[in-house]
What we know:
By secondary structure, this protein is mainly α. 55% of the residues lie in helices and 0% in strands. Helix 1 runs antiparallel to helix 2 (21-30), helix 4 (62-69) packs across helix 5 (73-85) and helix 5 packs across helix 6 (87-95).
Amino acid sequence: MLKFDAEKLRDILIHEEGYKDNEADAMKHALPKLNSKLQKYLDQWMEDRTVSEELNIEGVTLKIIMEKRRIGFCSALIFMNVYIDKPELAKKFLKRPIFHRGKPHRKRS
């Protein structure tokens, strides 16, 4: 379970990442359910928007997820949460990542 200042996260998502109010609220409610192994990465990102390369599941990092899926940090955390529990899915992603063309939906972090 992740712990964080929900209003600070909401503010970052809306004002820096381009989320709509309802999207930020949904993310605010989704993140606490994630594996506590992700806590230090969320803390670091909330402090200075740094995306750590330290977390590596079968060769997949948060930055790789963000780049290949063209998603923001918090969405990448949700994918990484799955990969922590099911590393075989990280291997599959690495072999056949999903590439998206065009602009990302939101400003990437």
